[in-house]
Amino acid sequence: MRQLTLRQIFAVPLMLAVLIAIGLVTALVGDGIWDAVSWIGLGAPAAVSLWYGWGPQPPT
Fold it and tell me: Which one of 15, 35, 36, 38 is CB 3.0 to 4.6 Å from 26, fit for a cystine?
């Protein structure tokens, strides 16, 4: 088994956290096009969670 660095381990969770923060801020302060940005910012992490939660399972 290959050893992962901290950067490899936390890259995706950090990216999702930034996306969520952007979505929350734009939902609070923006209107119009910012609504679409907030939907993407909050919907993408939810979609990723659903994909890995209910998606294809690796063989055991």
Answer: 38
46-52 own/partner pairs: CB under 8 Å, 24+ apart:
48/16
38 and 24 Cβ atoms separated by less than 8 Å:
yes
Note whether 16 and 46 are within 8 A (CB). no
pLDDT single digits (tens) 29-59: 989 999 999 999 999 999 999 988 887 777 7
Q: Which residue has the tokens 């088994």?
A: 1
CB distance 41 to 19 below 8 Å: yes
Contact 45, 53 (CB under 8 A): no
